[in-house]
Amino acid sequence: MQKIERSPLPSTVLDELHALALLVEKAADRKKEALRLWDNLKPQTKAAIKETLISMSTGLERCMYCEDGQGTDIEHFRPKSTYPLDTFSWLNYLLACAHCNSNYKRTKFPLDKDGTPLLINPADDDPVEHLGFSPTTGLIGALDIRGESTVVVCGLNRGVCVHGRLDAWVGLAFLIKSYAREKSADRAQRAARIRQVITRHPFQSVRLWMSRAIREGDADEYIDDEVVEIIRQHPELLSA
């Protein structure tokens, strides 16, 4: 998981969502009305929302939670059933894979004793303030209670994600070396294609952690010297 920059929705879609939110607010049974209106939302409206979320996502349409599966669902960060007034709030939407949305997070939304959400919203929060990463195990570690809640509720350390992050770490190193070879041979088109693969790879937060390790001087233990030197010469490899 990494920080996501929220893009603007088309004004016509925002206006439609605002009108629907007013209907929910006026309803006698807000939960029932929110669910009804969402189920009957125009297909083109949902498509516009999803298209904008896809443009915000990392990698190649990756889930904003696990970064592994394809983002297929419009995820309500605050669940519709508990927070009906947020059902039509653009700021409440994320892109999630069906596995994260239906098997893990679902309608879970833990709060602390003061009512503050304990889940990380990658469009509002910077996950690196709450989560750590081990390149030797592939595990995401919690730095605080919000990190812990997010790891558990979103299943960030389920087996497929752990192994996928380990593979991404190893794969990135090989791709970086391949990029350097193509650049040295003045094969710009091949180098550009490799960089595209790097930026579209699943588990883009692994690339973020690699960048941080090099920037903060913690790379020697986990990244070989050749890769570190290449990245220093070609910082574009770890940029967006």
| Count of discrete structural domains | 2
Report the helical percentage. Answer: 40-55%
Instruction: Tell me the total number of β-strands.
Output: 4
Tell me the span between the first and last alpha carbons: 15 Å
Structure description:
There is one protein chain. The chain has 240 residues and is mostly helical. The protein has two domains: 11-153, no CATH class; 159-238, no CATH class. The protein has nine helices and four strands. It has helices at residues 11-26, 30-39, 43-56, 98-105, 145-153, 159-184, 188-200, 204-215, 225-233, and strands at residues 73-76, 93-96, 131-133, 140-142. The protein has a two-stranded antiparallel ribbon. A two-stranded antiparallel ribbon has the order 3-4. Helix 1 runs antiparallel to helix 2 and helix 6 packs across helix 8. The longest helix is centred in the last third of the chain and has 26 residues, at 159-184. The protein starts with 10 loop residues before the first helix and ends in a 7-residue tail after the last helix. The relative contact order is 0.11.
